[in-house]
Amino acid sequence: MTTAAYEGEERGVGWLVFAASMLGLAGIFAVIDGIVALARSKFYTANAVYVFSDLRTWGWIILVVGVLAIVAAMGVLSGSSFARWFGIIAAALNAIGQFMFIQAYPWWSAIVFACCVLVIYALAAYGGQRRTA
User: Fold this and answer.
1) Residue 80 phi/psi, 5° resolution?
2) Is the full-model pTM beyond 0.70?
3) Which of 33, 86, 97, 128 is the most exposed place for a label (fewest CB within 10 A)?
4) What is the spatial distance between Cα 70 and Cα 18, in angstroms, rounded to a whole number?
5) Whole-angstrom Cα distance, residue 69 to residue 108?
């Protein structure tokens, strides 16, 4: 194995661990966001106007998307190619959900959106590489 191939494989593994950990972290934060939106809606920005429905509906949407992201993060750590695509879809749904939730908590939603974009990049660019023992 050449040095360049080894460095590319090592960088890919690092990106995959990053993607799995950030996807899990974004999922945990989305679950917390969803629970807080359902329990204490006064925590978020007052008089926010949403694309459709209200804060409680978006709380449920973010909660479900967060659970999907956590499951996808565990799958990405297992290394299966199905988990790679499921992770990309979960990160994309989380990014869209956070972008639509931006009226409630703008800076936080923008940060989680950026993390989801990095996760999509990592899984798309390096998720197809198989680890060799």
Assistant:
1) -80, 155
2) yes
3) 128
4) 14
5) 17
